[in-house]
Amino acid sequence: MSDLPLLTWGLVVAALVIGILAGHFGWGGRWTASRGKLHPDYLAGLDYLVTEQPDRALDMFLKLMDANADTIETHFALGALYRRRGEVERAIRIHQNVLAREQLAPEHREQALLALAQDYLRAGLLDRAEGLFQQVSEVPRLRASALDALRGVYERQHDWQQALGVYRQLARIKAAPPRLVAAHYLCELATLALERGEIDDARRLLREARAETAPFPRAVLLRAQIAERQGEPQLAVRLLRQALSESPQLLQDELPHLLDLVGIKSRDEVLAELVTVAESRDFGELKHLVFAAIAADLADAAPLRDAIGKVFSQDATLRAVWQAGPAQFERIAHEIGALLAQAEKHRCIECGFSGRSFYWHCPACHAWESFEAYAIVKLR
Ligand SMILES: [Zn+2]
C-alpha cells in the first residue's frame, strides 16, 4: 500500500477521527450529548476509507471540514499524510481547499502555503514550489523550514549559486546543514568554472570549499585535475594520492588514472607504497585497493601479491583459489576483475540507488557523500 507503517496510518486515522469529531461537536461536555448525532457524511467518509476508496473519502471529509472551521489542523494532518504516501494531487486539493476559505487566520494561511509548496516539490513542480517557499521564507516562524526546502529546490535544479546563497541565509539564523554541504556547492561551482576554462575562479572556489571543511577529498581531486591540465603531473599525482588516502572508495575509479599519470616505469613502486599505507591503516582500505587493482587488471603486479593473499584468505572460496596455485589464481582474478568491471559499482547507503557511476550527490534521494563502493563491499 505504501511505505508508511501500518501503525502510523492507524495513529493518523485516529487523530483524524478525533479531529473531525472535535470540530464537529466541540470538545468536552457536549460530546456525550452529541454522540448519537454523528454526521452521516462522516460515517460515509469512514466507510470509503475502510473500503479503500480514498477519493470518495476525501470528498466527504473536505465537505465536512468546510462546515467546521475548527478542524483545520485535521486538514494539515490529512494533507501531510497523502503527500507522504505519494498521493500528491490529493494533498494539493486539501491545501488549496484550506487557502480558498474566506476567514482564514494568517498563521493558517502561511502554514497552508508552506504545505502546498511541499506538495509542489514532491510533485516535481519546482518553479511553483520555489515561488511559494520564497514567499513563506518571509514569515519569521517558518523561515528556517522554508529556506531549507528552497535549498532543496535549487539543488534539484543544479542552481548551485542560489543553493549556496540560501545556505548562507540559513547559517545566519543558525539553521544550516553541516558545512560539508556548502563545500560541495563550492565544488559544483568550481567544476562549472573548470568547464568554462576559468581556472582562477575554480581555484578560488576550491580554497573556499577547503575553508568550509577538511579533509575534503572532492576538492583535492579537482585540484589534481587542474594540476594535470596545467602540465604539472607531479603535483597532480601528489594530490590524487592525497584524495585516495582520504577516501579509499575512490580507488575503484581513480586507481587506473593514478597509474596512467605515474607511467609504467613507476607503476610498481607506487603500488608498493599504496599497499604499505593501506596495510598500516585498516583491512577495509587494503580490500578496496586489492579489488580496485584486480578490476584494473593488475592482479599479476608483483607488489600486490601478498596483499591479494591477505584479502583472499579472509574468504573460504577465494582462499581455496589462492592456494590452488598461480595459474589457477590468475585465471580467477581476471574473471573477478571482469565481473567487477561490469558490476554496479556504487550504491547509496541512504536509499539503495546503485549503478556504475559514482555520485557525490545521490540523484535519487539527494543525500551528499552517501555512495559506497558496492561491488567491493559485497565481496567479503
Ligand atoms: Zn540515495
Secondary structure blueprint with pairings:
Blueprint (H helix, E strand, L loop, with lengths): L5 H20 L4 H5 L5 H11 L3 H13 L5 H13 L3 H12 L6 H18 L2 H11 L6 H14 L3 H13 L6 H17 L3 H14 L4 H13 L3 H14 L4 H12 L4 H15 L1 H13 L9 H8 L3 H8 L2 H17 L3 E3 L5 E2 L15 E3 H5 L2
Helix pairs in contact: 1-5, 3-4, 5-6, 5-7, 6-7, 7-8, 8-9, 9-10, 10-11, 11-12, 11-13, 12-13, 13-14, 14-15, 15-17, 16-17, 17-20
Structural summary, described in words:
This protein is mainly alpha-helical and 380 residues long. It is built from 21 helices and 3 strands. It has helices at residues 6-25, 30-34, 40-50, 54-66, 72-84, 88-99, 106-123, 126-136, 143-156, 160-172, 179-195, 199-212, 217-229, 233-246, 251-262, 267-281, 283-295, 305-312, 316-323, 326-342, 374-378, and strands spanning 346-348, 354-355, 371-373. Strands 2-1-3 form a 3-stranded antiparallel β-sheet. A hairpin with a 5-residue loop joins strand 1 (346-348) and strand 2 (354-355). Helix 1 runs antiparallel to helix 5 and helix 8 (126-136) runs antiparallel to helix 9 (143-156). It is elongated. The relative contact order is 0.05. The structure holds zinc ion (ZN). Residues 348, 350-351, 353, 362, 364-365, 367, 370 line the site of zinc ion. Residues 348, 350-351, 353, 362, 364-365, 367, 370 line the site of zinc ion (ZN).
